[in-house]
Design brief:
Distance between the termini: 63 Å
Keywords: DNA-binding, Nucleus, Transcription, Transcription regulation
Strand content: under 5%
Protein name: Zn(2)-C6 fungal-type domain-containing protein
Number of helices: 22
GO molecular function: DNA-binding transcription factor activity, RNA polymerase II-specific; transcription cis-regulatory region binding; zinc ion binding
Largest sheet: 2 strands, antiparallel
Subcellular location: Nucleus
Length: about 475
């Protein structure tokens, strides 16, 4: 007997296993909720960007090719008691998890409550109806709507630096309306970032939204969104297929962004998203469109965008904390990513640079790494080859050298955000390669050059690092401005 012949609307909406009992399934009976079933049954598509956006059109086709059938495996989640309580009851106050804080009255308790009004379902509607293919969007409070809009208009572009399709600006806000973990990740990131703005800037933004009196985002609201996202992610962590869900990967990298912002506010910043990011990246690194981008040059999805954001986040954290990469470089994506060619798009070319930077990070900070001169020279050669192979689009359209003695930083103008990421990553690589040159490090062991030449070499390294830091600081200042 099939495990799901005709799931009820609630189980279908939340991707839960339905026991198909009549007249009420066990979940609805336990929750005291009316068990509603509808005909006809529809097949849900796997949540990749291409199928997600084109699901309505594809559903009307009479036949599906063999290649498409392999994608028709929806992610199904196991509902734990905690998740069931989250669906049917108002979220608990933060006092249960954070003794010093309580839930804000302005934060929603009804977001995923099935008793709230939903989009009506017409059994006679065409299978291509959006309401029949996708669950209805969540009913947002004013605070949530403002934070979602803030993410779409302000924060999304921070994620989309190397994404020509701008998925975090255009796709993620819409996906968040029907994906609870993604929505809470977006709300927590927006709330934390918005709360760091000066009050006049906050008022300017909210007045732009038509709120003349402004909007106060409390610390309780921010923590509630974060804790609720963690609860959602934990509830699906035991489901193997969930690790391949691109919406959940997007939620994890967004939550990681929140924790990066949250670091100055807590002496011991949370590391939940760090561990989750490692698990999701390792699982999704084997996806064919990730491992073979040259075979799918025009198939850039939310999965690609979120995956490479995660790699970039890990590189920046490893550099700033002077630690090795916490993602194994044996991952298929890191060990077999194709070298850029003349026709490689710029954003994919930048990804190959991030992989090289990961190798440099491991050389510098991994105690198990071989810090031989041969390995070092190989990294320098690969860095130089990457730079020499770059097309003219990576060259800034305007440049000033700056004057260090006068405190004037260099200024570079680039036409694309991915070119800025490349320049910044090269700056970091330059600092690391200068500081970990084994020929210089060996001077302290009495190896290599004489005393006079050794002193000159150390001074040369010092100038190289200083110039790289100066260049990087100038780029950061002008990018922020």
């Amino acid at each position: 007997m099939p495990s799901r012949r005709d799931p009820c609307q609630h189980c279908r909406k939340h991707h839960l296993r339905c026991d198909d009992n009549r007249p009420s399934c066990a979940r609805c009976q336990t929750a005291g909720r009316k068990c509603v079933r509808s005909r006809p049954r529809f097949q849900f598509l796997n949540s990749t960007s291409a199928e997600y956006e084109g699901g309505a059109a594809e559903a009307s086709k009479p036949e599906t090719s063999a290649g498409d059938k392999c994608l028709d495996n929806p992610v199904e989640y196991v509902e734990t008691p905690a998740l069931a309580a989250h669906h049917h009851e108002p979220p608990p106050s933060l006092s249960q998890s954070t003794p010093h804080a309580s839930a804000s009255p302005s934060t929603p308790g009804h977001l995923w409550d099935t008793s709230s009004p939903a989009v009506s379902f017409d059994p006679t509607a065409s299978p291509t109806s959006l309401t029949s293919i996708h669950p209805p969007p969540a009913q947002l409070t004013l605070e949530e709507a403002c934070l979602l809009r803030y993410f779409a208009e302000t924060l999304g572009k921070w994620f989309d630096l190397c994404d020509p399709e701008r998925h975090f600006t255009t796709v993620v806000p819409q996906r968040a309306r029907t994906c609870p973990p993604l929505l809470d990740a977006v709300l927590s990131a927006s709330a934390r970032h918005f709360s760091t703005l000066p009050p006049p800037k906050q008022l300017e933004i909210t007045r732009k939204y038509g709120l003349q009196d402004g909007l106060t985002i409390t610390e309780q609201s921010t923590l509630l969104y974060h804790n609720r996202c963690i609860a959602h992610l934990r509830s699906v962590s035991e489901e193997p297929n969930a690790m391949m869900d691109e919406n959940l990967l997007a939620a994890v990298v967004t939550l990681r962004f929140y924790e990066e912002l949250d670091t100055p506010f807590h002496p011991s910043p949370p590391t939940t998203a760090i561990h989750g990011l490692q698990i999701f990246l390792e699982a999704q690194s084997h996806h064919p469109t990730i491992t073979h981008p040259h075979l799918h040059p025009h198939h850039w999805t939310l999965r690609h965008s979120a995956f490479w954001i995660g790699i970039r986040q890990e590189f920046h954290m490893a550099f700033s904390h002077q630690r090795p990469f916490r993602l194994p470089l044996s991952l298929s994506i890191l060990s077999s990513y194709p070298l850029p060619t003349l026709t490689t798009p710029d954003h994919i070319r930048v990804n190959s640079l991030l992989i090289l930077c990961a190798e440099i990070i491991q050389y510098c900070f991994d105690d198990a790494s071989s810090r031989s001169i041969t390995t070092y020279d190989t990294l320098v050669r690969k860095r130089n080859e990457w730079v020499s192979s770059c097309p003219g689009s990576f060259v800034p359209i305007y440049s000033t050298p700056g004057k260090m003695a006068e405190g004037v930083f260099p200024n570079r103008w680039y036409l694309e955000e991915c070119h800025v990421v490349a320049a910044q990553s090269l700056c970091f690589a330059r600092i690391l390669l200068a500081g970990f040159d084994p020929r210089v490090l060996g001077l302290g062991l009495g190896l290599g050059l004489g005393r006079g030449n050794g002193r000159n070499k150390m001074e040369e390294v010092g100038r190289e690092v200083r110039d790289a830091v100066w260049e990087g600081m100038g780029r950061e200042i002008h990018d922020i401005c």
